[in-house]
Each structure stands twice: as structure tokens, then as C-alpha cells.
Amino acid sequence: xxxxxxxxxALWLAGCASDTPPEGPAAAEESAAAPQxxxxxxxxxxxxxxxxxxxxxxxxxxxxxxxDDHQRITNLKVVAAWPQRAGEDTRGNRILYLEGEGxxxxxxxxxxxxxxxxxxxxxxxxxxxxxxxxxxxxYLRGSKLLVVDxxxxxxxxxxxxxxxxxxxxxxxxxxxxxxxxxxDKSGEGWGRGDSVYACEVGKGNCTDFHSYFQALCLVEGIPxxxxxxxxxxxxxxxxxxxxxxxxCWAEFFVDGRGWIPVDISEADKHPERAEQFFGGHSxxxxxxxxxxxxxxxPAQAGPPLNYFVNPYAEAGGKPLAASKTVTWTDLAP
Length: 333
Fold this sequence. Notes:
Strand order of the largest sheet: 1-4-7-2-19-12
Distance between the termini: 39 Å
Order of helices and strands: EEEEEEEEHHEHEHEEEEHEEEEE
Shape: globular
Low-confidence stretches: 1-35
Largest sheet: 6 strands, antiparallel
Mean pLDDT: 90
CATH architecture of the largest domain: Roll
CATH class of the largest domain: Alpha Beta
Strand content: 25-35%
Structural class: alpha+beta
Number of strands: 19
Number of helices: 5
């Protein structure tokens, strides 16, 4: 196989200077009772491969992580043969964009970065501040597959505790979803984050668990948001390992407490951690993007993406298959 010549470009994100837990093929089972690390540091290589049709202009978008209150990204480098640039969509998601003419050969792109990640813990026993959302409207809307139907409204009416505050109501939705659903990727329909499917069928993966939870929050008028990214082993490993999947989670907002994280699918797989995953997130993850119905930057020719964690490519204005493999190397904190 002939390889195209590679150019190396160092990209620094704004501020960078300063699903077996992984849903991938290489995750070994770990003790669910093992204590979780509060801080993790790893090097990630996100490698993309696609077959670019000869003579056609091909476009490729890859999600890039960004700094937030719980993760810091440094040493980001891209190895690719095509011209590239880093941009940002309207929700603040960072995106690497590449474009070139296909030569009928495999095109490979390697994106490397170092991630320092802290576990999240929200003290639910007290108000933390007087924080309020200046504009909650964006977090009170559904999406193409995050839908509220009559069945979900009926469930909401049944499981919402009368007279409870928003935090207690969200906990009731968390418990209901965990009890109603099972982590099961058999059959068809799972993995799309279809709230109606999750309510009716009662099984699926992380996208389905959290879409159902978000739908119940939306009925109640509790602001909620979706995040998706990479998920590694709970405990550091002595050798690099690979994952091929993704993991997603959700947050809801309560006045005076801010954004509160949940990870219901992990709580389903590890019931002994159910308390931790209401109001907390483990450190073995990397957030890549937020939101659903994603319009990329620059905009893709196809429809909005359901979510953005995998590479997306188009040739001649039509979607083109692109695969990814993620390699994790644990570093000292």
C-alpha cells in the first residue's frame, strides 16, 4: 500500500497553553469495586482512515477536545497529507477540518494530544452559589431523536414526586431510567439516542439511557445538555491499549447548584456506583463535543449529525465512510 507523504502541523487549542468501561474492542474487565482515581493523565492518538475516491474532492471533519473546568488539553499535533485548519461550531465544539483530492488510496490522519482529566463531584447537600442560567431556552429544546411523546409524558406524571424540588425530581428520573432500562446492544434501534425507543423498549446503550433521562427533564422544564467523547479503562494500565467506540453522558441544571452530571448507563453496569454517578463523573473520559443535531464548521452538505464523536467525511457532497481507532497511553498525573 502506497502512503501519501505526511506533513506535521502543531495545533494549539484556545487556552491550551496555559462502553469493560470503554465501548471499544480492547477493554479488559476491571473490578467494579476498585477505588477510582480522582485525576488522570493520558496521551491520546485518534487515528482516522478513509478511502478517498480518485479525482474527487473529499472533505473530512474530526472532533477536537477543548479545555473546560474538568479537562485540560496540551501538546496537540496533527499528522496528515491534506491542508487542515481548526475551527469551532456555534456551540463551541472544536473541529479539525481537512480537504483534498482523493487518489484512490487510503488516507490516514493522526491526531495526538495529552489530556489531564479530573473526576467531577458535586456536593448535593448544599447550595453552592446563586448561579442561574441567563438563557435556559437552548437547554429546554429536544432534537430530532430527543423527543417527548405521550408515553413519556405519562411516565413523567407517574414517577415525578409531588412537591419535590428539581434536584429530587431529577433523581427520580435517574432512578427510573436505571431501573427501567438495561444496557443491551442487541437487535436494532439502539445507539441512536432515541428517547421514544428507550422508553418503549427499555434497553440500549449510553445514548439511549441519557436521551430518555433528558426527555423526562424536558417535560419538567429542567435544563439539560448532552456530551459525548472517549472512555478509557477505570484504572491506569502499564501498556498502551485501543478503543474503537465512544461514551456519552448528560448534565442537568439546578439554580444555586449549577450543572450536575449523571452517567446512568455506567450506573446500570456498576450498580454499586449508582450514588457516585448521580452528581459525579469518573476521570477516565475525554469530552469531544456537546449537543445533538450538529452542523459542522464549515457546514457539511449532508443533514445535521445526530452527535459528533466519530470522524465524518464527504466526497462529491455525499457521506463517505471513515473509521477511527483510539490509542490510550497512561501517564503519571
